[in-house]
Amino acid sequence: MKGLIGRKLGMTQIFTEEGVMVPVTVLEVGPCYVTQIKTPESDGYAAVQLGFGEVKEKRLTGGVRGHLKRANAPALRTLREFRVQPDELAEFKLGQKVLVDLFNEGDFVDVTGTSKGKGFQGGVKRHNFNRQPKTHGQSDRERAPGAAGAGSTPGRVYKGKRMPGHMGHERVTVQNLKVMRVDPERNLLAVRGAVPGPKNGLVTISLARKNKVKKAR
Amino acid sequence: MTYLIKSLENEYLKEEVPEIRIGDIVRVHNRIVEGRNERIQVFQGTVIAMKGEGPAKAITVRKIGAHGVGVERIFRIHAPRVEKIEIVRHSKVRRAKLYFLRDRVGKKARLKQLRR
Fold first, then answer.
1. Does residue B28 sit within a domain?
2. DSSP-derived secondary structure letter, B113
3. CATH number of the domain enclosing B92
4. Could you read off the pLDDT tens digit of each residue along chain A, which spans 217 residues?
5. Is B111 among the domain residues?
6. CA-CA 20 to 30 A from A116: which of A39, A210, B28, B106?
7. CA distances from A175 to A68, A106, A172, A208 (A)
8. Cβ separation of B9 and A12 shorter than 8 Å?
9. What is the pTM of this model?
10. Range(s) of the domain holding residue B80
11. Are A182 and A30 in contact (CB under 8 A)?
12. Is residue B113 part of a domain?
């Protein structure tokens, strides 16, 4: 399995070994606990459920409390599931602690988070529509979306036409970020580039699905 | 948790960096990698600007090169390629950015030495 849950801490810049400065996002990753193991026999597919973020026990509802107790894990705020190959299931047992050292420096990872909410936005910001002229007799049309469709054929607006509306606060995955630093002592992971979401936002990190350099297993 | 980021940044800082001030004349020893060869190049000039914090802290050094052509280079003072920075002398300056030096030539482009 190659996934973990974490929290975005913020961005900074660090030097690589060649002395080049690169932008990185620092994530607090783990410790995660294995809270449930799903097998093809019992659930129809193979997956591992991980928990992250220790909280007071009274913050949880009874059902979750019981679920975690059965797994021998502490009280955790977040539970997430990661698909694994059925033959990998034997590597996990309930309550097992998983740390950042699951990843190595130089690996490529995909990071999934919830993007920052932008509220109701017009077409210019939301879909990169072009602006209309500021002058030449125009008034109040500068950021208007323009026409939404053709004339009496087809006589309607096509489904999926890009319109103003709510933007952001959606699940976003950034692929192929290079792992620049792994620090199991402080549970820190630094990946090159930006990661979706605000500071303190929850993210899940998994080994890149389409990575250029495959991790040797 | 900014302190966690700080603690990571601190690992990339050099232990000893001279206290550089605006207007200082400095000699920057810069390691240059050419294929397999490495050599040190020294760049001497006036510090006309400082910007950035932590590992990204940088100085802009200006010197007058050959044929009176002004040359400016920006060095990240914590970069591993910057081997050493020597301070030749301090100058008397009253502002944080000395960009006005770019418009001056000859005797006018000098700064008074700071004595105490």
1. yes
2. B
3. 2.30.30.790
4. 578 999 999 998 998 888 889 999 999 997 889 888 888 888 888 888 889 988 888 888 888 888 888 888 888 888 999 888 888 887 888 888 888 888 888 889 999 999 999 999 999 999 999 999 999 988 888 999 988 889 898 999 999 999 999 999 999 999 999 999 898 888 889 999 999 999 999 999 988 888 766 544 4
5. no
6. A210
7. 31, 14, 10, 6
8. yes
9. 0.81
10. 2-105
11. no
12. no
Alpha carbon of B101: minimum distance to chain A alpha carbons (Å)? 29
Q: Are B5 and A21 inside 8 Å of each other by CB?
A: no
* SS3 readout for chain A: CCEEEEEEEEEEEEECCCCCEEEEEEEEECCEEEEEEECHHHHCCCEEEEEEEECCHHHCCHHHHHHHHHCCCCCEEEEEEEECCHHHHHHCCCCCEECHHHCCCCCEEEEEEECCCCEEECHHHHHCCCCCCCCCCCCCCCCCCCCCCCECCECCCCCCCCCCEEECCCEEEEEEEEEEEEECCCCEEEEECCCCCCCCCEEEEEECCCCCCCCCC
| Average pLDDT in chain B | 88
Ordered DSSP codes for B28-54: EEEEEEETTEEEEEEEEEEEEEEE--G
Cβ–Cβ gap A12/B8 under 8 Å: yes
Number of domains in chain B: 1
Q: Quick check: ipTM above 0.85?
A: no
Interface contacts (A, B; CB < 8 Å): 45
Residue B101 within a domain: yes
User: Which residues of chain A neighbour B9 with C-beta distances below 8 Å?
Assistant: 12, 14
